[in-house]
């Protein structure tokens, strides 16, 4: 496949066209145009498959990338160069992301046709936003620079806002959408600052240009606000990740975002948009390293992973549990970035997208059936919803980190790397805190996910009315097919090429590596020291020139972690794997004891730790902290202070004082106007003209020959003055 | 060689005649004739100085232009006179005093 504009653009344009058509003509189309959205995203999926097969199944080498640009703005004038190029950048990571986004989006679109059916007045609107969102996400993944990424980033934020507030008759949904939008905006402002900081050094925000600038050392010695510019830029870009991926200080919006319809939660707030933040950090990984903020990143991730898991323990709302588990899992990805486990972080992004999308869709299937989200009203639904139960069980096994499932493969690699980073990499032992929090979070994950499963599907029905209301599930293709497909892909073998992820079975011939490990490597800035951009229209010739056939010359496991101490890494990974297996099973066992056998009552934990329980139920009082203290005490006080400055000082003294000055000035200028201007200048001009008039009238006799006479005298006088002699 | 003072004398003579006609006659056509005299006097002056002091063709070219301008001016002037006659049924110059005062 030639990589030209016609072969790449459709992947973005299909859903975008569907959005435009649906937005303008959706109401006139049959079924409000949902088939258009579903068909468009399916076409994108087909395109993504082609790109994926090119990149993954051995046409190009590992570090091959396609980078095509076209000139968007050119304001260069003389010496000054101001050019903005937009373009696309495809490497292995992009190809995998494209397949994940389009695949998950296709299935979620399909599911939405079942879930949203019969929704009055909003069915078409839902698909409009879904199409716009998908096209923005694909654009973000394809973008070759931070500016284009930022544009799509904001479009996604808008779609998220619209879909959270989709049930516009619910007041809480409206507030939740505003909260989500405003909270992520904090991160977005930082991200924009970071982009500008990078621009000030590189003069461009292409990924490739940034890598090349880093390799040429352009960031060295630049200082802003007393800290190095690289640190500043990396921090600002990471703040974008914190906002979008709901990391520690800005995590408050994601639980509230569950007010939206469940398929949109699955697509936006689980699989793709929140992962975009992690994707950004992965793309900017060399900058994070250069800025030396990886410890900060690791700690943010660890706090998020553990803290969100603890909150999820006590939630009774089915979707709230999933929301907190999403935050927690995103925290694991961020730990992965922080400890240098680049490859595993990206792998967890993909595996998480699959199983979390499936979990949300299953939750949607349950909620649609029982018309409640409260787990205490459910119970025993296993018999009524067998297909949903099976799919959700597979995903729960995956997220809990049970061996042979995808979650185990990726999370275990992150934790193994974190363990190595914390204990064996020769830095201070204090950093053991990060893997410790990670493992503790893994234990809690296994516990609360199985608690959710046990409360929902096992035991006896706790609310007979709800149970009777629930219809027996029969297979319908747009309800169950997405679940089954997604659940299938929670098996670890698709991601590791082996059952356990530790390289027992080998799909690729090269020594016992998972295909993810081989194909996705952190960008090595040295490779980008010199490169040439290609125009958008030209077909790609490098493929034939350099890499005829797959030959994966792999740089000895450059998965991010420093590959020197291979023995130590392996050691840490084995220990980590054993630990996480034990931890996962003990978590499941504890949940089993508490909620199936009921040998231990949950009250035993709750009663002595009442204040902690309350803190968890209130999400560590973060909402109260932000709203009551930060907004009401600080921002409103600041607001009042500004109002005082404006009304009390500025208005009173500056504006009113100016009025007094003006009054005096007015009197002075009125006198000046009356006396000087009117009576002297204006009237005086008239009078003087009158006087001249009297004289000039004599001359203006109307007799032409008199004029000649005057002319002659003037001429004669002129000649007289000439110095002829 | 004819001294240049002769040319200048003729030129001055023509100018004076033209001026006198312009100043004294009340017929507009006659005044136009006077203007022609003055123009020819100027043209003669140009040619004279060109021939005797500048030693180039600039003055001759000027003379040619003056002739052309005179022709154009005569055409325009006579047209005005005809329109004026149609309006006032006279060619007396003092009747054209609408712009007085």
Which segments of chain B are poorly predicted (pLDDT under 50) over 5 or more consecutive residues?
none
Structural class of chain B: mainly alpha
Taking all Cα atoms into account, the compactness measure Rg of chain B is: 17 Å
Mean pLDDT of chain B: 88
Largest interface: A-B, 10 and 14 residues
Strand order of the largest sheet of chain A: 2-1-5
Shape of chain B: elongated
CATH topology of the domain at 26-92 in chain B: Helix Hairpins
Structural class of chain A: mainly alpha
Number of helices of chain B: 3
Helix content of chain B: over 70%
Task: Report the β-strand fraction of chain A as a percent range.
Answer: under 5%
Spans of chain A with pLDDT under 50 lasting ≥5 residues?
498-511, 539-560
User: What is the element string of chain B, with H for helices and E for strands?
Assistant: HHH
Provide a count of the helices of chain A.
Answer: 28
- Give the strand tally of chain B: 0
How would the blueprint of this fold be written?
The complex is a heterodimer of chains A (725) and B (101).
Chain A: H1 5-25, H2 34-56, E1 66-74, E2 83-90, H3 92-115, H4 123-142, H5 146-164, H6 171-202, H7 207-215, E3 223-224, E4 227-228, H8 229-244, H9 253-256, H10 262-271, H11 273-283, H12 285-291, H13 294-314, H14 318-338, H15 342-370, H16 386-400, H17 406-424, H18 433-457, H19 464-469, H20 477-488, H21 493-496, H22 515-519, E5 534-535, H23 542-546, H24 566-597, H25 603-606, H26 610-617, H27 622-699, H28 704-721
Parallel strand pairs in A: 1-5
Antiparallel strand pairs in A: 1-2, 3-4
Chain B: H1 4-24, H2 28-54, H3 58-88
3D architecture notes:
The complex is a heterodimer of chains A (725) and B (101). With 725 residues, chain A is mainly α. Chain A has helices at residues 5-25, 34-56, 92-115, 123-142, 146-164, 171-202, 207-215, 229-244, 253-256, 262-271, 273-283, 285-291, 294-314, 318-338, 342-370, 386-400, 406-424, 433-457, 464-469, 477-488, 493-496, 515-519, 542-546, 566-597, 603-606, 610-617, 622-699, 704-721, and strands at residues 66-74, 83-90, 223-224, 227-228, 534-535. Chain A has 4 domains: 1-72 and 80-144; 169-289; 293-522 and 572-617, no CATH class; 624-717, no CATH class. Chain A contains 28 helices and 5 strands. The longest helix of chain A is centred in the C-terminal third of the chain and has 78 residues, at 622-699. Chain B has 101 residues and is mainly α. Chain B has a domain at 26-92: Helix Hairpins (Orthogonal Bundle), CATH 1.10.287. Helices cover 78% and strands 0% of the residues of chain B. Chain B has helices spanning 4-24, 28-54, 58-88. The chains are: A mainly alpha (725), B mainly alpha (101).
């Amino acid at each position: 496949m030639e990589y030209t504009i016609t072969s790449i653009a459709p992947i973005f344009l299909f859903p975008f066209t569907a959005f435009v058509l649906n937005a303008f003509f959706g109401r006139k189309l049959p079924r409000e145009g949902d088939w258009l959205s579903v068909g468009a995203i399916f076409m994108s999926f087909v395109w993504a498959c082609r790109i994926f097969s090119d990149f993954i199944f051995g046409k190009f080498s590992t570090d091959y990338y396609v980078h095509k640009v076209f000139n968007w703005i050119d304001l260069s004038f003389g010496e000054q160069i101001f050019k903005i190029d937009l373009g696309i950048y495809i490497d292995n990571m992009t190809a995998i992301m494209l397949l994940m986004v389009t695949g998950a989006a296709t299935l979620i679109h399909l599911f939405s046709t079942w879930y949203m059916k019969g929704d009055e007045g909003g069915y078409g609107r839902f698909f409009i936003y879904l199409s716009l969102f998908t096209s923005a996400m694909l654009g973000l993944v394809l973008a070759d620079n931070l500016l284009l990424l930022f544009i799509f980033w904001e479009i996604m934020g808008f779609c998220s806002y619209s879909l959270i507030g989709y049930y516009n008759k619910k007041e809480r949904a409206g507030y939740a959408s505003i909260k989500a939008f405003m909270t992520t905006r904090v991160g977005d402002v930082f991200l924009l600052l970071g982009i500008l900081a990078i621009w000030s050094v590189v003069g461009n925000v292409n990924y490739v240009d940034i890598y090349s600038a880093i390799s040429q050392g352009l960031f060295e010695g630049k200082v802003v606000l007393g800290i190095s510019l690289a640190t500043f830029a990396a921090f600002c870009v990471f703040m974008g990740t914190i906002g979008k991926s709901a990391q520690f200080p800005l995590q408050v919006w994601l639980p509230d975002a569950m007010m939206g319809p469940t398929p949109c939660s699955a697509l936006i707030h689980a699989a793709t948009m929140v992962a975009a933040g992690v994707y950004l950090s992965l793309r900017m990984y060399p900058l994070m390293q250069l800025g030396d903020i990886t410890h900060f990143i690791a700690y943010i991730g660890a706090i998020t992973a553990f803290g969100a898991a603890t909150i999820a323990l006590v939630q009774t709302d089915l979707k709230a549990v999933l929301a907190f588990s999403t935050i927690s899992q995103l925290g694991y990805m961020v730990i992965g970035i922080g400890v240098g486990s680049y490859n595993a972080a990206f792998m967890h992004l993909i595996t998480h997208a699959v199983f979390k999308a499936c979990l949300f869709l299953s939750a949607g299937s349950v909620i649609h059936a029982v018309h409640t989200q409260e787990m205490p009203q459910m119970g025993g639904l296993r018999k009524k919803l067998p297909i949903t139960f099976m799919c959700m069980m597979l995903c729960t096994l995956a997220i809990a980190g049970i061996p042979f499932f995808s979650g185990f493969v990726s999370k275990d690699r992150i934790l193994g790397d974190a363990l190595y980073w914390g204990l064996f990499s020769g830095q201070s032992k204090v950093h053991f805190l990060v893997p410790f929090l990670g493992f503790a979070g893994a234990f809690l994950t296994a516990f609360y996910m199985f608690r959710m499963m046990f409360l929902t599907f096992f035991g006896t029905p706790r609310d007979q009315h709800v149970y009777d209301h629930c219809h027996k599930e029969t297979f319908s293709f747009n309800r169950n097919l997405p679940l089954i497909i997604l659940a299938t892909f929670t098996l670890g073998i698709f991601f590791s090429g082996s059952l356990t992820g530790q390289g027992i079975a080998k799909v690729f011939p090269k020594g016992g590596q998972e295909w993810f490990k081989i194909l996705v490597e952190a960008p090595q800035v040295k490779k980008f020291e010199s490169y040439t951009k290609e125009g958008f229209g030209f077909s790609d010739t490098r493929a034939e020139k350099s890499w005829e056939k797959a030959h994966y010359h792999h740089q000895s496991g450059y998965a991010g972690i420093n590959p020197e101490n291979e023995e130590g890494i392996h050691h840490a990974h084995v220990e980590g794997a054993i630990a996480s297996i034990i931890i996962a099973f003990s978590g499941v066992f504890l949940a089993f004891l508490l909620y199936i056998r009921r040998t231990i009552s949950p009250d035993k934990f709750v009663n002595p730790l009442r204040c902690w329980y309350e803190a968890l139920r209130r999400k560590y009082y973060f909402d109260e902290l932000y709203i009551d203290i930060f907004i009401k005490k600080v921002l409103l006080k600041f607001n009042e202070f500004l109002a005082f400055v404006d009304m009390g000082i500025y208005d009173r003294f500056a504006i009113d004082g100016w009025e007094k000055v003006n009054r005096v000035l007015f009197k002075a200028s009125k006198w000046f106007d009356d006396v000087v201007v009117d009576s002297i200048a204006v009237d005086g001009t008239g009078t003087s003209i009158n006087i001249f008039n009297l004289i000039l009238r004599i001359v203006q006799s109307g007799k032409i020959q008199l004029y000649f006479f005057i002319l002659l005298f003037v001429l004669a006088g002129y000649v007289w003055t000439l110095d002829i002699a | 060689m004819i001294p240049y003072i002769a040319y200048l004398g003729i030129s001055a003579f023509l100018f004076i005649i033209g001026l006198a006609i312009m100043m004294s006659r009340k017929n507009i056509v006659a005044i136009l004739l006077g203007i022609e005299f003055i123009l020819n006097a100027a043209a003669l002056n140009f040619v004279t100085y060109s021939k005797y002091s500048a030693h180039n063709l600039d003055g001759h070219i000027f003379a040619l232009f003056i002739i052309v301008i005179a022709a154009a001016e005569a055409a325009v002037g006579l047209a005005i006179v005809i329109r004026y006659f149609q309006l006032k049924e006279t060619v007396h110059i003092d009747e054209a005093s609408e712009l007085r005062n």
